[in-house]
């Protein structure tokens, strides 16, 4: 592990140092630095609500301490399933109950009563400059393959939805490297803030820029789910890094949900898959119905405990052998 890390960090540092000093990236960094300085010293920044805005949220112990509890996954998934009008089979209800109990044990009981030995479970510390270099390279690879993907279909999928179905997985999969990439860069920026090297306003601005870079990258290919991953990752890092308030987290979550529904509606509009009853909420409802239909089908095929281990799922998947769903299906089909 140490050898792999050493090789990766050395290569990444060399690449980051070489590319970072190029004229193009020097110009880009100068532009961002200028915009950052203008933002930090801007009059309009003073109009932004303070950390104590909507202090009622800050006073809530549940929101303050448990807002990112793993159990929120159960609540969110339950609310999502409740949107579906597709009936849930009794057998699937039993499977979901098993899944919820297993998740609760793994997320709440094991960490507290079994995996709580701080001496045995110390997290290794890495040089944040290495982390930044690795994140920079991953982000660069993701953006590079974004342009390759666009060139391969001859247009922007966000402007023409039909192009999305022509995307080649071998080109689009590396685009998702931008997600861990910006996460690693964000952790380095947070460490700089903790050491007093940059101000709170600066680190907030840089988090915002990184979030926009990640979202624009995946949104260009008209992907929606990765946007949720980016928002969750950046908001969680920022919240526990104490550069975001509770009210900002709640507002960010609401904006994220609205964005997902809006993108789904626009996609339906572009594909002419709308009717007089179609609205932004109905697109979310149709997605919940589709998810419920797939869950019912998978439960019928594999049973409550996944007896077939994905074998039939993998064999019935259409599309390229390099597609993400196909790869997952093959990986679990032992």
Short characterization:
The protein is an all-alpha fold.
Explain what this protein looks like in three dimensions:
With 334 residues, this protein is mostly helical. It has a domain at 125-270. Helix content is 68%, strand content 0%. The chain contains 15 helices and no strands. The chain is globular and about 60 Å long. It starts with a helix and ends with a helix. The mean pLDDT is 76.
Q: What portion of the residues fall into strands of 2 or more residues?
A: under 5%
Distance between the termini: 26 Å
Cα radius of gyration in angstroms: 22 Å
Largest sheet: none
What is the strand and helix layout of this fold?
Layout: H1 2-20, H2 23-40, H3 55-59, H4 61-66, H5 72-82, H6 90-113, H7 128-153, H8 169-172, H9 178-194, H10 200-220, H11 225-240, H12 246-270, H13 280-302, H14 311-315, H15 324-331
Brief descriptors of the model:
mainly alpha; 334 residues
């Amino acid at each position: 592990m140490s050898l792999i890390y050493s090789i990766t960090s050395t290569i990444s540092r060399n690449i980051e140092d070489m590319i970072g000093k190029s004229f193009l990236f020097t110009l880009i960094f100068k532009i961002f630095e200028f915009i950052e300085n203008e933002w930090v010293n801007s009059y309009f920044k003073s109009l932004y609500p303070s950390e104590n805005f909507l202090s009622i949220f800050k006073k809530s112990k549940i929101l303050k301490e448990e807002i990112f509890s793993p159990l929120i996954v159960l609540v969110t998934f339950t609310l999502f399933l409740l949107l579906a009008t597709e009936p849930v089979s009794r057998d699937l209800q039993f499977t979901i109950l098993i899944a919820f109990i297993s998740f609760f044990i793994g997320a709440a009981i094991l960490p507290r009563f079994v995996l709580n030995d701080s001496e045995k479970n110390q997290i290794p510390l890495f040089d944040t400059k290495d982390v930044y270099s690795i994140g920079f390279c991953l982000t660069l690879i993701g953006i590079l393959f974004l342009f390759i993907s666009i060139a391969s279909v001859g247009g922007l999928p966000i402007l023409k939805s039909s192009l999305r179905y022509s995307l080649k997985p071998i080109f689009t999969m590396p685009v998702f490297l931008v997600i861990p990439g910006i996460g690693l860069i964000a952790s380095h920026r947070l460490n700089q803030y903790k050491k007093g090297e940059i101000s709170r306003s600066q680190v907030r601005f840089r988090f915002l820029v990184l979030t926009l870079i990640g979202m624009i990258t995946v949104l260009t290919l008209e992907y929606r789910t990765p946007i949720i991953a980016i928002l969750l990752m950046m908001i969680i890092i920022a919240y526990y890094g104490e550069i975001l308030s509770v009210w900002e987290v709640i507002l960010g979550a609401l904006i994220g949900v609205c964005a997902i529904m809006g993108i789904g509606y626009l996609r339906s509009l572009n594909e002419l898959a709308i009717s007089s009853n179609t609205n932004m909420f109905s697109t979310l409802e149709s997605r919940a119905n589709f998810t419920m239909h797939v869950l019912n089908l998978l439960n019928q095929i594999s049973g409550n405990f996944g007896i077939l281990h994905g074998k039939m799922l993998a064999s019935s998947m259409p599309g390229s052998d390099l597609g993400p769903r196909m790869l997952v299906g093959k990986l679990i089909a032992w």
